[in-house]
Amino acid sequence: METTKYIRCMRQLHVNTLKKTSLLIALFLIVFSPSAAYSQYANVTDDSLLVLGNEVYRKGNYPEAEVIYRKALAKYQNNKSEKEWIIASVGLGASLLDQGVYDKGQEWILKADSSLSEAIHPELQAYVKSNVAWAYKANRDYSNSQKYYTTALSLANRSGDQYRIAQVSNSLSLLTYQLGYYDDAIKFGRIAVQSFEQIDDPFLLSISYRNLASAYEALGFTEEAEDNLIKSYNTTIRTQNNDLTSTVHYYLGSFYHRTGSYDKALANYSKYLSFVQEEGVINYIAPAYEFVASVYMSLGDFERALDYFNSSANLIEDLSITLNIAFCYQKLGEFDLARSYYNKILDNPDQNQTDHQTIEVYLKLADLELETVNLPEALAYAEKASQLSQKTESKQLNARSYALVAKVNARLDQPVRALTYSKKAYNIASLFKGYRIADYLVQLSRSYHALGNDSSFYYAEIAFSEIEREQRSVYGENLESGVFSNYANFYNEVAYWYLKENDDINKSFEVTERGRSRVLLERLAFSDSELQNVVNDTTLIALRQQEKNIDKVYREIERLNDNQSLSALREKVNELEFQYQSRTNELYLNHPKLRSVNESEIIKISEIQDMLSDNDALIEYMFTDNKLV
């Protein structure tokens, strides 16, 4: 144990004193619960009660620690301004908080805070303030938590205590990340990393690297995120703590899965699975099987995914596992098996099953019946999903349900009903623009076309604009995701409408080429690569934070039903988007290089022909609706 006067972080576990299984569970609580608050305890050597209390607390025996700290408080009750009473008060509060007695726990820590004076050394003040912040966080008072952590950091800087600076910075990085202030999370995370590097505490340095990686990834800096995760892994190797190393394998697997590096994801998830299998903790083995299975699903290898999901299901019963097993069977063409698993969920609902989960089952069953051309059954499930979704607060589920009802009616040659539900779906979806509204516009356009209504062309053009807006916007995904390839058929479909119904060959080819350019186009107009080469990382981080702020408001809009609140949020998002546009315009003005990167215009057929000699001719063709044009 470190023998400095007061300071040590609760996360610095005495691993040699814990049994293997207890240590594993303790580490999972630390590393897999980013929202879990933790206290810092004072390390004293001149009082046997406080030394014993700290030791028992570190081992996680909070009821016994509570008893010891109460004895210490009784011992020093006549000297409440002394450091021993203050430390005992914080210790008691922390013990109560960790037992779930939040009000009393916070009360005792605040008593310690009220006993502070200018005569108390800044080091001890910082210790108390950081625990006050932790208590507020445990009680979900994030504003006060951030306020006290900031005060603790200021006091730690005054005292020159590098360990406290590192610890509080790490706590602030975690808190601001959870609040969505990713730029601040990076700022504090960097301070924590630099400080723990100087102190050479590999355990906490590893966790700090991981926290910093999460903040970088949230703002889209995947290279920096990967770099910090690898540093976290290399640092855990120095600790010779296989338990902690395995958890970093989990985080690496999760990161690589999200970023599409499936081979690396499988390698890390498999190492993590091997570790938890060796430890024999079922509650962690079952999810580990699911992690591996999810990668195989992403690879389209549903047979292997099914094997791992079944292995998980053999250990625990869980709705999500059953859903995934059903989906795998559906993708493997085992429709009867898939149907039986979906119906199993509906016939024997889990006591904790929510309406949202039931709606998901109805939607999946409707898709299955649609795929197997059991259209009446598909319609019945889609309508059940729609009826149940109207009882929930989720506009997104409501819109998805209406859209599926419309899709089935279109297949049933019920164009009027298809149009009616397509309109309903779009009207709801438009309240939370930015979340694939293009899908709803595409369906609405097709519904109008089925009735021979020229509005199909109008909504098709809006759909094109929305598809292209999503590609450039802060809500869109980059080229690597391949999401825009899903719209290629719609571009070709509309091109065929122009050709067949309007005999407009030029417009037809324009739409076709427009679709091709959207599938192939990288974000040239304002690409991350160009930005990184032109502006400094501080500016880029601030810009990405603005994007996240806008996205956060749109998500709030999606959840609300109250018109007054919706109106206020729309005003807020308009203001944020104006600020964002002003910021990007300023960057364009200040950095001429950015203005030189423009999208290529779609070349006209006549222009290509003009480039050819008189002896050459241009033949252009396209496939649409399985027809050669």
Tell me what the structure shows.
It is built from 30 helices and 4 strands. A two-stranded antiparallel ribbon has the order 1-2. The model is unreliable at 1-41, 472-483, 519-529, 597-603 and 622-629 (pLDDT under 50). By secondary structure, it is mainly α. Helices cover 72% and strands 2% of the residues. Among the domains are: 1-160, Tetratricopeptide repeat domain (Serine Threonine Protein Phosphatase 5, Tetratricopeptide repeat); 532-628. The radius of gyration is 29 Å and the shape is globular.
Describe the structure using short key phrases:
72% helix, 629 residues, single chain, 2% strand, mainly alpha, two-stranded antiparallel sheet, 4 strands, two-stranded antiparallel ribbon, globular, disordered C terminus, Serine Threonine Protein Phosphatase 5, Tetratricopeptide repeat
In short:
About 70% of the residues lie in helices and about 0% in strands. The chain is mostly helical and about 625 residues long.
Chart the SSEs and their pairings.
Blueprint: E1 7-9, H1 20-31, E2 40-42, H2 48-58, H3 62-75, H4 83-97, H5 102-114, H6 122-138, H7 142-159, H8 162-178, H9 182-199, H10 202-218, H11 222-239, H12 242-258, H13 262-279, H14 282-298, H15 302-313, H16 319-331, H17 335-347, H18 355-371, H19 375-389, H20 395-411, H21 415-429, H22 437-450, H23 455-472, H24 488-502, H25 505-520, H26 528-534, H27 537-559, H28 563-590, H29 592-595, H30 605-611, E3 623-624, E4 627-628
Antiparallel strand pairs: 1-2, 3-4
